[in-house]
Design a protein that fits this description.
single chain; 4-stranded antiparallel β-sheet; 2 helices; 36% strand; signal
Amino acid sequence: MLRISAAVVAALTLVATALPASASEAANRVINQARQDCRMFEEGILETTPQAIAFADLTGDAMPEEIVDASQFSCSTAASLFCGTGGCTITVIVDGTATEFLAKGWKVVDWGGQPILLLAVHGSACGGTNLRPCFEALVWSEGDFRSVDPRPDNDR
């Protein structure tokens, strides 16, 4: 009789849930990079929740885009590897292209058929401190995310 340890079963289950079968190559790259980053820090093991990759139509074409949420990652050897006081990396994948944002949380809302990505961001983006609530609203238009007060790419 073949005996499989509980640790092996748990590890195989974790790998299976970390990368959904429907995840794109770009989403898999984000997860695999996080796994490598964790491993580089004292041989850590990456764990993800089923919510690590979410799907939402952000472009208005009725096809879901992927949102990889690093707040759903944890590294066994570094509690704050993926998030800090400014939030966590949110990677939005549209047509295979990944765009990263730093956010404390996110939500997609519908405004008359227009999908809007709301990001809870660091209070300094609104002229305050980290304690000040601040949100950025992003819409997809002309092949990119647009906002009222767009920040340079290196500030996202």
